[in-house]
Structures are given as C-alpha cells and as structure tokens.
Amino acid sequence: MIDANLNRLKEGIRVVEDILRYRDNNKELSLKLKQLRHKSKIDEIDKLLLHRDSIKDVLRPTTNSELDRVDIKNIIIANFKRAEESCRVLEELFKLYDTKQSENFKYIRYELYNLEKEIVLQEK
Q: With contact defined as beta carbons under 8 Å apart, do 84 and 112 qualify?
C-alpha cells in the first residue's frame, strides 16, 4: 500500500506540475509542486520494491471514469484528488510506526489543498 500510494502521489503531482511548467510557463507554481514531489519520499525504497507486484494488482485495469477527461482543468482536478487521497493513506499508515513521516504527508496534503484551490480557480 505504501509503495502504490507513494507512486500515485508523485505521479499526480507531476502531471499538474508539468501542465503548469510546459503549458503555462508558471515557474512559481511549478516549483512549489516540484518541492512537494521531492518531499514525497521514503528512505526504505528497497523494502518497497521487494513487495511491489503491479502485474497482479486487482485494480490494474482502467475504469471508465479514468478515461473520462474533457479538458485540462478536469485532468488537473483528477490529479490533485489522486495526490491528496494518496497523502491521506500514507499519513494514516505511517501513524502506526513513524509519526514524523505521517506529519510530513499531512503537511503535503494540506499544501496540495491550497495549491488546488489556487490553480483550479484560475483555470479557464
């Protein structure tokens, strides 16, 4: 669960980061997202990789709602939600054995909430 949610978190941030970087040329917001993405890390990556089994993931097939994107704003919202939800899972799981990491993911989640509001409300 940790590996999957860490990947999902970083991927969601990266999608929004790249839109703001390449489409909007927005250095300030792109940098904020990049910093959050880099803050989204776990030192025990080898342990995570040992337990990764993406081939047998029961929810690997794409659902219809994941294919339903009508514009860039919709992609931005979907990826913010993906990142925020993953942060929440990581925050809860780390409460069991590393409260410092739990607080780190809580911090990232709240920063994402703020950035989501700022970015989505200015999106056409």
A: yes
